[in-house]
Model the fold of this input.
Amino acid sequence: MASQTPSASGPIGTNGNNGFYVGYLPAPATYVRFVRRLVPAMAVLAVVVSAGVAMMQRDPGTGAWETERIRAFEGVVDAAPYAMIRTVDANAESGMRTILLVREGKFGAVDKVEDVAGRFARVRGTVLQRDGRMLLELVSGDEGVQTIDAPTPESLTRLARPRARSLGRVTLRGEIIDPKCFFGAMKPGEGKLHKECATLCIAGGIPPMLRTSDAAGGATYHLLVGAGGEAVNDAVLPFVADPIEITGDLERCGDITLLRIDPHDIRRL
Done:
């Protein structure tokens, strides 16, 4: 029988040029060349994919929550349709700023202020703000809301609930948001990723708002109320965080706008 002559690459098991890899022997040259090309290519691909994913994400916006700073505001408190306080603000167009009030967690603050509604009070808490809108998460306990004497007899009159001015019947497209998360408690605080959280917040009493955007990206915010001016938290829950279209009566009340709606007129886009 003719004897077999080993190939020039060496017998199997020597990790020669035959490409058969044995872990305890030096890697074949073909493997080394392949890995040297693959690793840089994978690194470049990872950078490109990461940049692409980042560019596809929504802008988290400019919302901010001053969690480390307790601030106090004085003015006239209201409990209907939602908890709020009206304070003097020389920088505001109407000379008055309306600040929505909420409790810690996913809860509104109507129960905290309903006994002092229409009276002058001092509220304390942490501010959330975005696009010129403000919301205050009240500190727990009695320090959150305290009635005080009005600085002047005219103060109560000046900060009384403004008479609503009709802006007409409108049809708007946008998204129902919970302002606490959207103004700074969460990022993102909108869209499908935030739907469950926003639904829980609005179910807990946080005022529902309709956010709309113009062609230039500017945002407007409208408090949603019923035809009689009542809260509509439960009625709008099925549509929270979805793109919607709704027809209603738009009103300006001081520095805020209210959209009086029939929840049956909400249409999911």
